[in-house]
Amino acid sequence: MTRSAPITLYYSPQTRATGTRVLLEELGAPYDLHVLNMKTGEQRQPAYLAINPLGKVPAIRHGDALVTEQVAIYIYLADLFPKAGLAPALDDPMRGPYLRWIAYYGSSFEPAVIDKFMKHETAPVTQSPYADYDSMLGALEAQLSKGPYLFGDRITAADILWGVAFNWTMMFGIVPKKDVFVRYAERITSRPAFQRIGAEDAAMAAQHAAAAGV
Ligand SMILES: N[C@@H](CCC(=O)N[C@@H](CS)C(=O)NCC(=O)O)C(=O)O
Fold this sequence. Notes:
8 helices, alpha+beta, binds glutathione
């Protein structure tokens, strides 16, 4: 497959797919949107379950490659467009830490925030994938305190992932609005790509609600 094969982003506004779209914009990547109206349940129809059997967005198709799961998509896309400089190269000493903090999002942060949001009884630290909520968030806070980005002055695709994640988890009151998280999220959400997609998302979400009659 050629790098220049078309990219399709399976998308719904104001979801976890928003961050992927922001990343595509930050990368200057050409892409098409395949929009799903989640308010009418399009994500659970057979056509989309054939793309992602979990019925979740984001997913991308790049030529013959179908990629689901945000962390995989972020790594894949940032590597696909190296000129944007958002992915440390394989021989860059930052590559390992970069992968660590991207994987941390899916393996530790997401299960922790969902447990917290749903008020689930949590597993003992030795069995929980994230130890406990405070340790999970404390490790992030320590890393971000060095600032302004996860790896100092250098912005990477991991910062797009985390900036968008802090924005929505603070909005839902799951993550506390500590200065370090608020300032970090603002660094990403004030960028033109997030502003542009945020405005388009608001309009698209209103259209979806109207189409669903809600
Ligand atoms: N593990 C997935 C989770 C994605 C996810 O939870 N997406 C939500 C949107 S924020 C979704 O598609 N929900 C639709 C549904 O379950 O009906 C990932 O990291 O990409």
